[in-house]
Design brief:
four-stranded antiparallel beta sheet, alpha+beta, Integrase catalytic domain-containing protein, coiled coil, Peptidase_aspartic_dom_sf, extended
Amino acid sequence: MSLNKLGKDELKIVAEELNLTVPEGAKIAGLKNLIVNSDAYKNDKELVQSAIDYALAEIKNKRLDSETKLEFERIKLAQLQKQLELANIQKNLIENSDIRNPSVFETADNNNVETLLKSVKTLTIPVPSRVESYNLFFQSLEKAFKIKEVPEQFKCEILLNILGERVNNLLVHVSEEELNNYSKLKDLVLKEFSPTPQECYNRFQKAQKLSSESYVQFASRLCATFEYYCQLRNVNDFKSLCELIVSDKIMNTLDRELMSYMNIKQGEKYFKPQELGRECDIYLSSKGKIKNEIFSKPLCENSKRFNYNKQNKFNAKIPRDASNVFFSELKNDKCVLCKNNVVHALQFCPQFKMFSVNERVEFVKNNRLCFKCFSPQCSVSRCRSKNCFCSKPHNKLLHYPRERKGNSFFPLQTMTDVNQEPRFAFSVNAESFVPKEDETQIVATACFKNKCLLSTALILVKDKYSEWQTFRALLDSGSETCLISNECANKLRLKTERINTLISCLNDASMVVNGCVKVAISNQNKSFERELDMLVVKKITDFIPQKALEINSDFYNFVELADSKFNVPGKIDLLLGANIFYELLKPERIKIKDSQLLLVNSVFGYIVTGNLDSINETKVHCGLIRDEDLNKNLEKFWKLEEIEEPIVKNKERLICEEHYANTHFRTKEGKYVVSMPLKKEPSCLGNSKDIALKRLGSLWNRLARDKII
């Protein structure tokens, strides 16, 4: 905090910020003494420092304004110089011409469109890339018309030549009369290139600072864009601006269909918040999305967890300004089966779940309910809910399980009595799998007659320091997302983003994932690179393959394999899902002679897949991870049954209890109120109130001097 580097103007601003009276004709030394001897300088150093910073910023802004004006004058001077050069050239042409009659030369020159076009282009700014600058473009063009005295019949032709290919679409529907009228053609061009208010608002939201511009230029561009948007919306006062901001916020919360409808209906104008809400309610009611469907109907498009949360949330908070067209439908909130005051959807009804599949189907038919969402106001043909997991148009509660045919599966009790060895059967003597601590893996024990190879590849992954490291990846077209193990992410030192998402596995198993990273992958020769979002899990799968495999073939020597150790058990660090799987494959296929193996070409090399004969495996790994739901429930049960130990009260706890007993009271509304406890006396805070009041007064003075506010 130094006053020595400040000039006279800066010292005056600092004194005004500190509410000091500046005498007329005061010099720098007098201003410094006035500030140093003030109470604020002695007691509140932060206030003085903020005043100095404000003074420096104010002087800097004034300097920038003057530089901007100077730059504008330079541009005007350059334009005048160009006009002067053009006039000199024209004068020289007239003097050096062999034509004796000057009037004939002037007439021929004025009627020469090419000459006029070149001269007008010289005096006109280039065609702008941003639509906000077209008004400035036409101002410079009309000024050039006036300087060059362009005849009226040539203005339209010159304008179309300057715009070029930009007006190809416009020329399709323009009449002959409009092509010969400059004013009408100008209005059509402005209307063609002017954006809709929604496009202007989207451009404002997506605007980013360019590398070639400063933050002052970026701020000016944003201000110009927003002012143009307000101009399109006819916003002229603060109240209209507030209503516009609220309406835009509501529009951002709408789905795509409803947003498109509202944009078309409001046109150049905009709906006020209450009008917009009313129009949305009317649209939803006309589409059949009545109140009980919006707030109570469970959609199969979302998970069960989503349905429960949304149902409780919407039932608890119903908008006050909802349209009256919804009120007559409140009776449909009750369960069709229970018919009591309990509000729940039919698919969550305990009594309905106790029915057999045949009884459920008959009940849905008799009550004329939708087979997918169980709503009486919907039908299968227009229902937007998801199909069953069997891909047929019905709810999963109405799914008939398939009957098992043949002898492909055998009960465990009769396994020893079967003479014929099945292709796939459960084994009593199968090796048990014991998972590690804090991990649960779903493992199916089985006896296989042959073994299918899973697709693996050695890929390059970029770490935090942009160095490439080699890891083993599993290519799985049945996974919707890509996964990375926690160990691999730690080795790469990647920044993990905190998320909370649910992964569904086999047999309704699920797990919660709390981390996501951006991973850059590549093949060995760097000809293929991609950046993927991957979920971080503790472990993707067990070793693949389970045991070392003997491959009796010499194809190793002829092709480049994606994983040269595909037959050796190894851990999986990454899983590449369906979003990248088919992008990795190439059309080449090689069938190994006298074998069921198949080589599939990919960006990483040839992937070995297919079946292996005479492999007696006793364990099949499904490669899934799920939560320890049972262990968690047991842990909660144990905690409930535990005998609580007496709480040892320390000195602070006793003081808090005594303070609560002496100071608390209950209001008429039933709330308990207690005075704020303090460890130290309030006097230790000093005169903070006086300092805060001084800063408030300084802020008011600063706002009062601002002409814009």
